[in-house]
Amino acid sequence: MSRRTLPDANETALILAARRSRPARRPPPTAGRALTRLLKPLEDRFGQGPQALQARWREIVGDVLARHTEPVKLSRKSGSGPGALEIRVNGPAAALIQHQAPEILERVNLFLGAGAVDKLRIIQGPVRALPPPPRPRRPPPLDAAQEADLARGLADAPDSPLKASLLKLGRAVLREESLAEAERARNRLRD
């Protein structure tokens, strides 16, 4: 039995020129795209589920209540009647949540639509920790000319906590004025 030798570069070029290769197959569509056609009619028929509430829960109930609660299940009655929202609550906070149930239902109905939920079921259990709320951005410092004008205006005041507070207030006012001026300039450019 003889060993077969590999073709050299010229023979390889001839072989590849003579053969036609098949085009590469397209990958299948992503699962999300395929499921959208199925889920959209269901969402239109039954409404949004607890995932929509979980994504915006902090906005709906506020930071304090969001730390102690999370929506678990949104059950609808047959037909188009209002449903019930099941929320998980840290044990000690259950009494507070029960007391604030009408306000929570009102806020949830503002988000889901009027009359979407009429009952609140409270289940005691551990709640997933929410990520901390975004920290406010630190305002930019004043430019040197504004800082010098502010210092000159308060040069006669004796060093005291009052002078420090006035400096802080002056910086805040000047920052607000410069931010408002920048916003007006942006609006002029847009128009």
Structure notes:
This protein is mostly helical. Among the domains are: 45-124, GMP Synthetase, Chain A, domain 3 (2-Layer Sandwich); 144-190. The protein is 53% helix and 12% strand. It has 9 helices and 3 strands; from the N terminus they run H-H-H-H-H-E-E-H-H-E-H-H. It has a 3-stranded mixed sheet with strand order 1-2-3. The longest helix is centred in the C-terminal third of the chain and has 30 residues, at 161-190. The termini are far apart. The mean pLDDT is 83.
Annotate the secondary structure layout.
Elements: H1 9-18, H2 31-46, H3 50-55, H4 57-61, H5 63-68, E1 69-75, E2 83-89, H6 94-99, H7 101-112, E3 117-124, H8 144-153, H9 161-190
Parallel strand pairs: 2-3
Antiparallel strand pairs: 1-2
Helix pairs in contact: 8-9
Short description:
This protein is mainly alpha-helical and 191 residues long.
Uncertain runs with pLDDT below 50, 5 residues or more? none
Structural class of the secondary structure composition?
mainly alpha
Which strand order do you get reading across the main beta sheet?
1-2-3
Report how far apart the termini are.
Answer: 85 Å
What's the β-strand tally?
3
How much of the sequence is in beta strands?
Answer: 5-15%
Write the CATH architecture name of the domain at 45-124: 2-Layer Sandwich
Biggest sheet record: 3 strands, mixed
Determine the CATH topology of the domain at 45-124: GMP Synthetase, Chain A, domain 3
Radius of gyration, CA atoms, in whole angstroms: 32 Å
